[in-house]
Structures are given as structure tokens and as C-alpha cells.
Amino acid sequence: MKHTYLINERIYLRAVEPEDLAVLYEVENDVNLWDISNFTVPYSRYVLRQYIENSQCDVFADKQLRLMITRKEDNLVLGTIDITDFSPIHRRGELGLAIRRDCRGQNYGTDALVLLCDYAFDYLRMEQLYAHIAADNTPCVNLFYACGFANSGLLKNWIQVEGTFKDAIVFQKLSGW
After folding, report:
1. Cα Rg, the chain, nearest whole Å
2. Spans of all domains in the chain
3. In this structure, what DSSP letter does residue 132 have?
């Protein structure tokens, strides 16, 4: 039986479409997420539209993969999940996950992370995925532990938020874990 990737009973992960511009604009410009994303300024609709148009949706060509997290029952876009800083030589990439505020706390992040890990390890044959998570972001820390990621270290004063430095945990998952 052929394996189906990027879909489960509640959600599916799909490529970015031009119709996703409003959701991307909302997520990318949520200042509450900037501390984990290294953003320093808002993105314009123009820049986001160019990103959508120029993306080849090929992790090997783009060195990143952005997927939209979509609820099956009504096709509502719940957020985004990304692999960035993809290194084909080392077969690793950094994870990013953003769930819309009104959709948090319903385990959609867990569903998306499990699906993306399955796809990355089984289909793309990646060796490892990693993420930098603010140590005080308890929901996100718990999510990565629940999805089998290991705490590989603590980066002191790694993230600056409103003039205060926060520690970040490096989470890592290797293929076969």
C-alpha cells in the first residue's frame, strides 16, 4: 500500500496558493511571533505576493519549504509550517511553525509537526530537523517534546524581546528517532 504524506484525519499540509496572501500577511506581521522568527519589520502584501509567485515549491531549489496547515472539514487555513535553512549536503533543516491565534490550543500544531516530520524523514530522506524555541514558551516546548524532539542544548540570551534577552532551547530530531 502506498503511503500518503501530508494528510491525516483532521488536517492536510499543502503548497502556498495566491489566495493565501491574507493569511500569510496576518501570520508574518503578528508581532508576537517576531521574537521566534528573527523578523524586525512587517512584510508588505507586495513582498509576500512576490514570494508566492517566485517560490518553486521545491525544497531543493528554494532551500526552504513552506506549507499551509489546512483543516479538512472546511478548508480553513490554520497557519504555516516551514523547513528553512535547508542543507541538502547535510540533509537538515530548521523548523518553523505558526498557528493563527484563534486556532491555537486545539492540537493542530501537533498534527502539522507530525505530518511534516514524516514527510521530511520518510519522503525527503532528511537526516535531522531542528528548532530554536524560547525557553519560556511552554506550549511550544511541550509540543516539541511530545513530537519526539530532544533538548540538545540551551542558548543563553539568544532572543531579544522588547529589550530583554531570553534563552532558547535547541530542539533536534534525527531520522529514526
Report:
1. 16
2. 11-129
3. E
DSSP letters of 42-55? PPPHHHHHHHHHH-
Please say whether the beta carbons of 140 and 165 come within 8 A: no
**Parallel/antiparallel/unpaired status of strands 65-71 and 11-15:** antiparallel
Maximum pairwise Cα distance, the chain: 54
- End-to-end Cα spacing for the chain: 23
pLDDT in tens, 91-145: 999 999 999 888 999 999 999 999 999 999 999 999 999 999 999 999 999 999 9
11-129 CATH: 3.40.630.30
Integer CA distances (angstroms), 104 to 12, 44, 56, 88, in order: 16, 25, 29, 32
Contacts of 168 (CB under 8 A, 6+ apart): 132, 133, 134, 135, 154, 155, 158, 159
For 1-31, write each residue's pLDDT tens digit.
Answer: 567 899 999 999 999 988 988 888 887 777 6
How far is Cα 144 from Cα 130, in angstroms, rounded to an integer?
10
3-state percent helix, strand, coil for the chain, nearest multiple of 5: 35, 35, 30
